[in-house]
Amino acid sequence: MGVVIPTNKEVLTFKGLHLYHSGISNCAMRVRITLEEKGLEWSSHHLDIVKKEHITPEYFGINPNGVVPTLVHDGVVMIESDDIIDYLDKTFPDRPLRPSDPDQLKLLYHWLKLATSIHVKAVKTFIYDKRMRGKMAQSQDEQEAYARLQTNPELLEFHRKSTEGAFAQEDLDEAEQILRTCFAEADALLADSKWMVGDQFSLADIAWVPLHFTLKELAQFPFERFANIQAWADRIAERDSFKKGVLDWWPSGA
After folding, report:
1. Of the given ranges (48-52, 115-119, 193-197, 238-242), which has the lowest mean pLDDT?
2. Is residue 150 within 8 Å of 66, Cβ to Cβ?
3. Is the pLDDT reported for residue 125 higher than 80?
4. What's the angle, vertex CA 197, arms to CA 86 and CA 29, rounded to 5?
5. What is the fold, at CATH topology level, of the domain defined by 3-91?
6. Mean per-residue pLDDT for 21-27?
7. Which burial class, exposed, middle or buried, applies to 44 when counting CB atoms under 10 A from its CB (0-12, 13-18, 19+)?
8. pLDDT value at 65 more than 90
9. Which CATH code for domain 102-239?
10. pLDDT at 133
11. Radius of gyration of the chain (CA)
12. What does the mean pLDDT of the chain come to?
């Protein structure tokens, strides 16, 4: 579980569920959908990441990677969206979002970990190159401030490439190939099933539908070839948790 010890001690006094998040973040969408599926009350700490409201000493003191989401539950700080939604489902087991079958549970964790593992290399790279690079490029002063705060080498390198327009064609080709491979696997799975794991809506669906949404909305990823993915996404779009956890927070003009 992605529990961290914050240097910003203010959050240690928080009671209940507090979420640091952004409307445009697919990782934050996962947590909001889970909270809504569970019917849990939570306090919002919204950060506009396009305006770089997350790049401050105060927020890095809560999340050492300086990214969203961060969940604070009764003063305990958790990062990494897959760990957070897994924690929420275990801690609040009403309306379970996991199968009981061991083989299906193993498959669920495969999809959770895969979604996390491709985030920077594929999802973030594809979206930033197609849509976000100009909006989130850092000035020289911002780069220097970010470098003082950020200790994660993968994120440092990513933002350097994003700001300088230095994504190599092989980076972009690899990102697109990873996405095509993953969604082809999911599309094949959904040919015989309504949901990604077993016969119930689960954390696997919650982990992947924000990727579909942001890749489609921000980067026009070609999902037309994946008919089963399209139908699956349409089913999820009808759920109240998607409307409240994604659409209600989606910035106008994004």
Report:
1. 48-52
2. yes
3. yes
4. 45
5. Glutaredoxin (3.40.30)
6. 97
7. exposed
8. yes
9. 1.20.1050.10
10. 60
11. 18
12. 94
Q: Spell out the domain ranges in the chain.
A: 3-91, 102-239
* Averaged pLDDT for residues 226-247: 98
- What tokens does 246 get? 């994604």
Which span out of 67-71, 125-129, 157-161, 163-167 was modeled with the highest average pLDDT?
A: 67-71
Mapped onto helix, strand or coil, the DSSP state of residue 78 is: strand
**Residue 161 — pLDDT band, cuts 50, 70, 90?**
confident
Nearest to 60 by CA among 47, 51, 50, 73: 47
Contact 242, 235 (CB under 8 A): no
DSSP 125-147: HHHIIIIIHHHHPPPHHHHHHHH
CA distances (Å), origin 82, targets 66, 98, 108: 17, 13, 11
Strands across the sheet containing 43-46: 3-4, 76-79, 70-73, 17-21, 43-46
> What's the CA gap between 85 and 129, in Å, rounded?
28
Q: Are 223 and 216 spatial neighbours (Cβ–Cβ below 8 Å)?
A: yes
Joined together, the tokens standing for residue 158 give: 């990513």
Among 175, 80, 166, 169, smallest CA distance to 123 is for 175
Q: What is the pLDDT of residue 1?
A: 63
Q: Are 17 and 43 in contact (CB under 8 A)?
A: yes
